[in-house]
Design goal:
single chain; alpha/beta; five-stranded mixed β-sheet; two-stranded antiparallel sheet; 8 helices; 7 strands; globular; disordered C terminus
């Protein structure tokens, strides 16, 4: 059996939060009004997914349902609707390539092809060593800096085929590649730098702000 087969056939082992995550879950729930604790289902699912090596098993869904006092089917409805939740095991690094309009216009096809070639897998596949899973996703919400790839909790922007290959090679070698823009862009500013709001003025509240009235 290959590592990839073993990942796909991972058993649904019993699940419960660690003591640290119980405290974090209670902190999250406390943000919501009394009687509205079920509104915390999304962040708690994400917390469970991180603890469970990147995916949500059936026992994890059942545990969250019990933790929040809601039917399992309602938890499952949320987990199956949003693509941020993985319902089967994934590799140690989850490579999510945005192919929505802005990224597509800026070359996401080339980015995806580079990922396929570098990893030796197709969309939805996991490498033999269990290191990487490759996915196609919708908008990653930084369209100015397209094309974009999310890997685990980090975002890599202004990519080229060459730069994504370098990022994947760094991760495979156990190093931490530079996140954010790969061309030195500051935040989502124009590539050439700011052309407006370049002076510091006084805002309406008396504090410093960018721009003059």
């Amino acid at each position: 059996m290959t590592v990839q087969d073993a990942i796909k056939q991972a058993p649904n082992e019993p699940f419960s939060f660690t003591d640290e995550n119980v405290a974090e879950a209670e902190r999250i729930i406390a943000k919501y009004p009394e009687g509205r604790q079920q509104s915390a289902v999304m962040p708690l699912l994400y917390l469970a997914q991180k603890q469970n090596k990147g995916w949500l098993s059936q026992p994890a869904l059942e545990y969250i349902a019990g933790f929040l006092g809601m039917p399992v089917i309602r938890v499952a409805e949320v987990a199956t609707f949003y693509t941020m939740y993985n319902l089967q095991p994934i590799g140690r690094h989850h490579v999510q390539v945005c192919t929505n309009l802005s990224c597509w216009l800026r070359g996401s096809d080339e980015i995806m092809d580079a990922c396929r070639e570098a990893l030796g897998i197709e969309i939805g596949g996991t490498t033999e060593d269990g290191a990487f899973t490759l996915s196609e996703v919708e908008c990653l919400c930084a369209c100015v800096n397209a094309p974009i790839v999310q890997i685990d909790d980090d975002f890599y922007e202004d990519l080229t085929a060459e730069s994504i290959r370098t990022i994947l090679a760094e991760l495979r070698a156990g190093r931490t590649p530079k996140t954010g823009s790969q061309i030195g862009r500051t935040s989502s500013e124009p590539i050439g730098g700011l052309t407006t709001l370049t002076t510091t003025g006084t805002g309406p509240g008396g504090g410093a702000g960018r721009g003059e009235a």
